Amino acid sequence: MLGLCWSSLLVAAQPADSLWLPVYEKASLRYFALDPLQQLLAVGTDDEVVKYAPDGQELFRYHNTVLGDLATIDAADPFNILLFFPEQQTVVLLDRTLSDRAQLDLRTTPVQNATAAARSYDNNLWVYDDFAGRLFKLSSRGEVLFTSNDLRLSEGLRHGATHILWQGNQLLLNFPERGVAVFSLQGRLLQWWPLPGITDCFLDQGQFFFRQADQYAVFLPEQQVREAFNWGSTLPAPVCYRQQLDRRYLLDEQGLLRVQVRR
């Protein structure tokens, strides 16, 4: 969620590639996430999670062979990392060494079919239940702390949220069929951003970055403006992208992750 606002750095007069220097590369990845310390959590094709230091050195590993495919890593707190396994409807909480701290089977709670999960600012959990059409806030033990209205009825939704993000005083839920629903941290729906069809997204210093129609763009909420990215003539557009401080992280279709630092 952290990073430098650099949409203004992509100037047409200078090739984008010349602004960046390589730091390290990792191959055979399916997905990745970052914590605020520039530590990389990389998911391989076998769903093993490997944590790397900012210089690319391996630190720790985590592998679970019984919970199915890993869908989400929330590493906003590097000491309390959330993993979401939708196939078994299970949330796993890890410490900084990727050791198990707790597991919560959401089927033991009122949640019937979670499609997205994330940590909250107060160390509880946000979960969207597709069957109920509701946003739930749960404790790490599964106690219900908040339940929204049925968004299928009030907002006409047919499908569940695919991403939950929070930053500052806002909570964002991505519904590809319609766009991004903006909630307060108390769970009140505030507005919609008209950005349908998003397949990946993240927040960075008040800007919303998203992948739509196989291209990344940035949305500036206050100005209600979106800007496309210029990746440079020699660099393929990534299938997964993140930025943080002076670095950017680009995962291509072959599973190669390039980590680059701004000159």
Written description of the protein model:
The protein is an all-beta fold and 263 residues long. The chain has one domain (7-262): Neuraminidase (6 Propeller), CATH 2.120.10. Helices cover 2% and strands 48% of the residues. It contains one helix and 24 strands. Strand 6 (72-74) and strand 7 (81-85) form a beta hairpin. The longest helix is centred in the middle third of the chain and has 5 residues, at 151-155. The two termini are 22 Å apart.
Give a nutshell description of this structure.
With 263 residues, this protein is an all-beta fold. The protein contains 1 helix and 24 strands.
What would the keywords be for this entry?
single chain; 263 residues; mainly beta; Neuraminidase; 4-stranded antiparallel β-sheet
CATH class categorisation: Mainly Beta
Number of domains: 1
Helix content: under 10%
| Cα end-to-end separation | 22 Å
Specify the structural class: mainly beta
Strand content is over 45%
User: CATH superfamily, called what?
Assistant: TolB, C-terminal domain
Quick one: how many beta strands?
Answer: 24
- CATH topology: the name is Neuraminidase
Low-confidence stretches: 1-15
H/E topology pattern? EEEEEEEEEEEEEHEEEEEEEEEEE
Biggest sheet descriptor = 4 strands, antiparallel
Order of strands across the biggest sheet? Answer: 1-24-23-22
The overall average pLDDT, rounded, is: 91
Shape: globular
Q: How big is the Rg? A: 18 Å
- Given the structure, what is the number of helices? 1
